[in-house]
Amino acid sequence: MNAAGATRWMYHMGNALCETNFSDVDARIKPCIVDFLRVKMKKYASQHGWRFNEADFDFVHRDPEMRVLYEAEVVATLTPDVLGATGSKELKRFLAFCGVDSSTCVEKTDLVELARSALREHIGADIAALPSLSTKELKRFGACRRLDFGACVEKAEMVGVARQALLRQLAGGAVAEE
Question: pTM of the entire structure?
Answer without folding.
Answer: 0.64
